[in-house]
Amino acid sequence: MKRRFTGILAVLVAATAIAAGCSTSAGTGEDLSEESVVTTVGPDSGTHMNMWSFVELHNTFYGSMVEKWNKENPDRQIQVTFTTYPYADMHNKLIMALQTGQGAPDLCDVEIGQFPNFLQGEIKLYPLNEAMKPYEADLVQSRLNVYSKDGNDYGVPTHVGASVMYYNTEVLEKYGIDYTRIKTWEDYTKAGEELKEASGGTVKLTSVDTGGMDWLTIAMAQYGEDWLSGKDGNVQVKLESVKKMLTMQQGWLSDGIAMISPAGHVDLEEGFQNIIDGNIASFPKALWFMSRFINYMPEMKGKIALAPLPVFEEGQNRSVGIGGTGTVVTAQAADPELAADFIAYAKCSEEGSRQIWEQLGFDVCNTKIWTEEAITKDASNPYISFFKTNPFDVLNEVKDEITTLSITKMTPGINDYFCTTTLNEVLEDKREVDEALQEAQDYLELEQ
Q1: CA-closest candidate to residue 179, choices 64, 285, 309, 315
Q2: What distance, in Å, lies between the first and last C-alpha atoms of the chain?
């Protein structure tokens, strides 16, 4: 599927919508809306605002925070009309509204892969630095950087999206594999060989995705590389980290210790069933994947442990933020300062972060929450009670190792090409890694 992308922003949005299919829910950790839903929260006497999102649960959360804001700020009352649009429709509408200078909402969620489209040329978003200042000392800085440009913060993050390894301890214990001893990818591979021998090849250590980029994101983060690692600042996909990961995965498939994810991705219905059936013993994913177990795999309760990712070399970072949504205040907002103060409170304050965790199950960006025992040790919480290890214990262990890759205007095109061509060639067709990456490089250079 080789096709040319133009530089027009509206077309980039459409391309990103295609690329989003490489990672279910576009990496937000939520199911996307398929139709428009409108609700209004707050008194008629309050300052009225419009807010758009592509995830209905996000707007439900924001609505609850409007009520909390109004209780705490009687002199700054707000009323917000929330509209939930389908993913591609919302991003297209927002770009067109900002380009034409009319019709934009006061507030809007923007998916992380889309964000570069809104930072090109004249930025028509309101800087959030002042609104974020009361909370920034406690926030994971790498997540703020994703939505920033030239010293200005333009998006309020929803979660860290810290990636971890999910281990099926029931399977591993059955075959005598101790996941706590796995520190490197070499250890991981050895565990896969032991599992193959012990199970007679009936259980694979993991599944690799042909329709998702998480494995490559992890590798790049561990080596400090990204798609713009070229000396000239142009796209570069022939990276050492990418070569190492793809070569390693080819070896796993050849040796029978891994399988290709059903339907190409672990984060799909077929992938969930593969986990339930015990066909794989582990896989890496962001912490927001915990909700997939709650919603789609309840029978796995008490069987799954979370742990830091293996690394290629000791000392490399053991986590990377994957996915995300940054909420913006547009330049067309009637009262941008009020809108900014509200959304910073809703998503970054201790109360807002507590609600994000309790309502959405996300690993929040406010690290104060990570050590608040009333939250982290709450056995009644569905996420804490579901898993064999405490997600906050893992977060605190890798707290200083959570990196974030640069997201650029080329990211959608790179993701799309890899998900439709490169990953299938390398993992399904067993094409030589260097050849496949060179072809991807040649194609993407033409699209810059």
Answers
A1: 309
A2: 17
**Which DSSP letter does residue 203 get?**
S
CA 3 distance to own-chain centroid: 26
CA distance linking residue 407 with residue 8, whole number of Å: 18
Give the per-residue pLDDT at 30. 56
DSSP 368-405: GGGG-HHHHT-TTSHHHHHSSS-HHHHHHHSGGGEE--
The whole-angstrom separation of Cα 185 and Cα 163 is 15
Q: Is 361 left (phi over 0), alpha (psi -120 to 50) or beta?
A: left
The residues, any chain, with a CB within 8 Å of residue 147's CB and separated by 6 or more, are: 112, 115, 153, 154, 155, 156, 157, 326
> Residues near 86 by Cβ (< 8 Å), separated by ≥ 6?
32, 33, 34, 35, 36, 54
Label residue 6 by pLDDT band (50, 70, 90). very low
What number is the average pLDDT over the span 292-306?
97
- The single-letter DSSP state of residue 311 is B
Helix (H, G, I), strand (E, B) or coil at 413: helix
Going by the DSSP 8-state scheme, the letter that residue 1 receives in this structure is: -
- Strand 282-286 versus strand 163-168 pairing type: antiparallel
Amino acid at 108: C
Please give the C-alpha separations between residue 146 and each of 126, 219, 289, 430, in angstroms, as whole numbers. Answer: 16, 19, 20, 34
| Residue 404 CB contacts under 8 Å (≥ 6 apart), including other chains | 142, 143, 145, 146, 221, 320, 321
- Say if residues 422 and 437 touch (Cβ distance below 8 Å): yes
* Tokens found for residue 22: 């490489």
| Confidence band for 5, pLDDT divided at 50, 70 and 90 | very low
Q: What are the backbone dihedrals phi and psi of residue 286, each rounded to the nearest 5 degrees, phi first?
A: -70, 160
Summarised one tens digit per residue, pLDDT across range 25-83 is 435 555 566 668 899 999 999 999 999 999 999 999 999 999 999 999 999 999 999 99
- Region of residue 143 (left: phi > 0; alpha: psi -120 to 50; beta: else): alpha
Average of per-residue pLDDT across 185-207: 98
Task: Collapse the DSSP code of 313 into the 3-class scheme (helix H, G, I; strand E, B; otherwise coil) and give the result.
Answer: coil
Q: What band does 410 get if pLDDT is binned at 50, 70 and 90?
A: confident
d(CA 24, CA 147): 21
